[in-house]
Task: inverse folding
């Protein structure tokens, strides 16, 4: 009888749905040039290298690599790959093996407060990564339903934090209280005040962030992991506190870092705008702008345009 | 929560002790809250045994002068239902506040403005025009409008001055407790009566006769799983509704996720989505915007054009999200100032 063949790392990755096609990679690095993670978050991030590690049986190195954990499957690299490799699928397969081997995600993930969680399942339906699920367990002798988040699947986008209707979900750094505490802007005589919620990924170059930071302090910049994190209640609280306008800045339609956050944000701002319209409140006080890869510098025009239209309201 | 605790009624108290005095009032409301109290049925007789009702315009013959004649704080507990729509509502709110030790905002209207609060979407002139000129059920070519003051045979009479917007009770006076519901469910009313009459008062400002989490906590329907999102919104009358699945998974907006539990789910049991009458749960300030935040996260498409088409299916976002809480919402604050 033939002795059982020892599976290589590459064999294992290949066996997982989505992990099949990495062999055809010829290491051109186009994926790296498309990826935002390397430039914005982690210089060591490199899908091309990870694919090589798989081929070269470098299991531990692959599991330790930030590439395994940080890929959010935005798939900007997918259409660019000349070999048509679904790279996020391969990375997902590596991550699955890493989790099975006991490795932990280095990302900040969300936490559910069971004293509030009502088990509605909104977070389950919202999450682009299937991280939360509903579980039943006994509390004080009664079976109750809660959301439980798989930390290895959670990418920390915060979409569920905003979607949770009772505020039971928090992510360190962008909990409701932490974001709310940043929305205060002092009144500026004759100048409109504007809160800009900017998604960590939408402004692709540092120069654009510098533009935002260069405004005087009647423009408050609040960083959120994804435009899908925006919470209409928070925007309204900002307006009630006297802020004249709220701008949410997210990725272009096909470029969301977290798959669907910008669509969620579009829906929220659209409905919020309609509600303000139904109340006959001034138009244009909330706005969602989508800045694409090709839109370098556009943020200045967007902010200026909003400030000047608010200026008319203020005057 | 204190309101959940079942307690013995005050029947065991010494008979010599003075009976606590109760008052009920209705302001801008439909009368449903009054009906809830009468639905206590024979239990109301028990209430009469252990307490004196000193004011209840809907059911008993009292005049405002009777209240004015009472000493300050002479009423032990006053249950005030209805929103503040006109100066009469507000005047009596101040009077009853002065005469009552404990003031309870009873029902959605006094708690959050309720259905009358929806009028805050419109300017007063638009409302009057609709009611007196353009309503399809009206046939009056003379353009009759009520006058504040009218001379009649007995002298001059004056009708209350309508305010430009609707407010909740707590917007005009200090309120001790809030009892939500349109109307509050009768068993919760009974529990609250017993609790209060037994002197077991919760912390001031508490929401009584309800729980802290949302309706989903107690809803037995099967919840949506990963990726179960909404590709088309339906209004309840447009589709055949499944009895066991969460309404949201059927594309029908249910306010349950943004609504405090405690009502025993009469609407959901009748296969209708929650309308939100118990108001926002603990920790939520603005019910409608939180509902929008949840609903928007469930819309499923990656085509911006389709997105607008789907959202057009949400016929009336304000009426949907704030059906009972518009007067107490940030939207009303923005429009009318706070």
Result:
């Amino acid at each position: 009888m033939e002795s059982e063949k020892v599976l290589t790392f590459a064999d294992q990755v290949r066996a997982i749905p989505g992990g099949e096609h990495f062999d055809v990679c010829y290491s051109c690095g186009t994926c790296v040039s498309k990826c935002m993670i390397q430039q914005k978050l982690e210089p060591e991030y490199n899908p091309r290298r990870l694919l090589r590690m798989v081929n070269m049986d470098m299991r531990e190195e692959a599991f330790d690599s930030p590439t395994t954990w940080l890929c959010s499957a935005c798939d900007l690299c997918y259409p660019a790959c000349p070999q048509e490799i679904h790279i996020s699928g391969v990375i997902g397969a590596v991550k699955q093996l890493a989790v099975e081997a006991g490795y932990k995600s280095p990302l900040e993930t969300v936490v559910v407060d069971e004293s509030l969680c009502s088990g509605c399942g909104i977070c389950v339906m919202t999450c682009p990564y299937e991280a939360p699920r509903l579980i039943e367990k006994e509390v004080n002798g009664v079976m109750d339903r809660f959301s439980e988040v798989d930390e290895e699947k959670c990418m920390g986008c915060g979409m569920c934090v905003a979607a949770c209707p009772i505020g039971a979900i928090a992510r360190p750094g962008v909990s409701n209280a932490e974001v709310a505490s940043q929305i205060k802007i002092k009144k500026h005589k004759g100048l409109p005040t504007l809160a800009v919620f900017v998604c960590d990924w939408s402004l692709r170059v540092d120069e654009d962030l510098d533009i935002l930071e260069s405004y005087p302090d009647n423009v408050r910049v609040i960083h959120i992991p994804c435009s899908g994190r925006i919470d209409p209640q928070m925007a309204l609280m900002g307006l009630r506190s006297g802020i004249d306008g709220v701008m949410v800045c997210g990725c272009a339609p096909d470029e969301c870092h977290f798959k669907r956050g910008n669509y969620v944000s579009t829906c929220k701002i659209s409905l919020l705008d309609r509600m303000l319209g139904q109340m006959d409140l001034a138009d244009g006080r909330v706005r969602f702008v989508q800045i694409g890869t090709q839109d370098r510098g556009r943020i200045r025009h967007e902010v200026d345009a909003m400030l000047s239209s608010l200026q008319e309201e203020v005057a | 929560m204190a309101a959940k605790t079942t307690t013995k009624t005050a029947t065991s108290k010494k008979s010599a002790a003075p009976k606590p005095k109760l008052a009920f009032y209705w302001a801008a409301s439909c009368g449903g809250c009054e009906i809830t109290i009468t639905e206590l049925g024979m239990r109301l007789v028990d209430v009469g045994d252990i307490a004196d009702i000193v004011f209840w315009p809907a059911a008993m013959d009292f005049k405002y002068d009777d209240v004015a004649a009472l000493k300050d704080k002479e009423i032990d507990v006053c249950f005030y239902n209805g929103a503040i729509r006109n100066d009469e509502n507000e005047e009596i709110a101040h009077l009853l506040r002065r005469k009552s030790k404990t003031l309870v905002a009873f029902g959605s209207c006094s708690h959050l403005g309720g259905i009358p609060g929806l009028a805050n979407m419109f300017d007063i002139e638009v409302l009057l025009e609709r009611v007196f000129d353009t309503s399809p059920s009206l046939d009056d070519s003379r353009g009759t409008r009520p006058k504040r003051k009218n001379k009649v045979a007995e002298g001059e009479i004056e009708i209350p001055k309508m305010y430009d917007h609707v407010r909740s009770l707590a917007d005009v006076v200090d309120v001790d407790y809030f009892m939500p519901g349109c109307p509050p469910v009768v068993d919760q009313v009974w529990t609250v009566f017993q609790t209060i009459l037994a002197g077991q008062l919760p912390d001031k400002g508490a929401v009584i006769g309800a729980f802290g989490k949302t309706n989903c906590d107690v809803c037995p329907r099967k919840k949506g799983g990963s990726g179960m999102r909404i590709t088309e919104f339906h209004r309840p009358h447009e589709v055949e509704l499944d009895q066991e699945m969460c309404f949201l998974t059927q594309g029908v907006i249910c306010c349950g996720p943004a609504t405090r539990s405690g009502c025993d789910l009469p609407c959901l049991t009748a296969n209708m989505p929650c309308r939100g009458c118990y108001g926002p749960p603990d920790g939520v300030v603005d019910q409608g915007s939180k509902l929008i935040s949840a609903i928007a996260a469930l819309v499923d498409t990656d085509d911006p054009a389709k997105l607008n088409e789907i959202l057009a299916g949400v016929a009336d976002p304000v009426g949907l999200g704030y059906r009972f809480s518009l007067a107490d919402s940030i939207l009303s604050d923005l429009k009318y100032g706070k």
Summary: Residues 261-278 of chain A form the longest helix (18 residues). Chain A has three domains: 9-100, 107-171, 173-314.
